[in-house]
From TrEMBL:
Residues 1-31 form the signal peptide. The keyword S-adenosyl-L-methionine does not apply. Keywords: Apoplast, Disulfide bond, Manganese, Metal-binding, Receptor, Secreted, Signal. SMART domains: Cupin_1 (SM00835). Disulfide bonds join C40-C55. Mn(2+) binds at H119, H121, E126, H166. This is Germin-like protein. The lineage of its organism: Eukaryota, Viridiplantae, Streptophyta, Embryophyta, Tracheophyta. Oxalate binds at N116, H121, E126.
């Protein structure tokens, strides 16, 4: 009777495969952790340290905790050397977003090359919707440094995958603006130029000189430009 051992062998394979699938780590969650209650309005004054913000007392919650009117108008693009202005509507401005895993921002770009310089959002994928103007946008893959870029017009949408370096630049003669959506209550923004050349305390010149394959004079020049107070 060779049929029974063969059946047992097949059964053993099915059991082993099923066990492997169950025991393998579950796929990671590509966004903020899920919420455990209806609302947890951020108490931005609390000193309690948790992943996010502590919830304020339910009795103190008002509609204003879920409201923000700051995205209607253009930000001041003259206030930055890059000619762009980011206005966030994240948990810091809208405390009701705490634990909800979403946020928005508006970005304005000055005519003639206003730039949102290369940066990453460690905690969110970003989707931009062009309100006005023409923009050159792009991101670079981590796998092989491939630039994925194109030009956007009003009404267009573009995606910057979580954690990847990306930029937007005004390619037109008039003002440009986008509305951004994020799958995080606070995506975090790390600008590459500032992180490397305007950190406090400073990154050693030797580190930057070798990383960028230039001399320390060039490094000091960039540091001085990005942090004029130290020059
Ligand atoms: C915009 O920023 C510039 C530079 O900081 C400042 O001089 C100007 O007053 C600001 N404009 C408005 C409308 O706030």
């Amino acid at each position: 009777m060779a049929a029974i051992p063969s059946l047992l062998r097949r059964l053993a394979i099915v059991v082993a495969t099923t066990a492997m699938v169950i025991l393998l780590p579950s796929p990671s969650v590509a966004g903020d952790p899920d919420l455990l209650q209806d609302i947890c309005v951020a108490d931005l004054t609390s000193t309690v340290k948790v992943n996010g913000y502590a919830c304020k007392a339910a009795a103190a919650v008002t509609a204003d905790d879920f409201y923000f009117s700051g995205l209607g108008g253009a930000g001041n693009t003259s206030a930055s050397a890059y000619g762009s202005a980011v206005t966030g509507a994240n948990v810091e401005k809208v405390p009701g977003l705490n634990t909800l895993g979403v946020s928005m921002s508006r970005i304005d770009y000055a005519p003639g090359g206003g730039l949102n310089p290369p940066h990453t959002h460690p905690r969110a994928t970003e989707m931009v919707f062009v309100l006005q103007g023409t923009l050159d946008v792009g991101f670079v893959t981590a796998a092989n440094n491939r630039l994925v870029a194109r030009t956007l017009a009003p009404g267009d949408v573009f995606v910057f995958p979580r954690g990847l370096v990306h930029f937007q630049r005004n390619a037109g003669d008039g003002p440009a603006a986008v509305l951004s959506a994020f799958n995080s209550q606070l995506p975090g923004t790390q600008s590459l130029a500032a992180a490397l050349f305007a950190a406090s305390p400073e990154l050693p010149d030797a580190v930057l000189a070798k990383a960028f394959q230039v001399g320390t004079k060039e490094v000091d020049k960039i540091k001085a430009r990005l942090a004029p107070k130290k020059a």
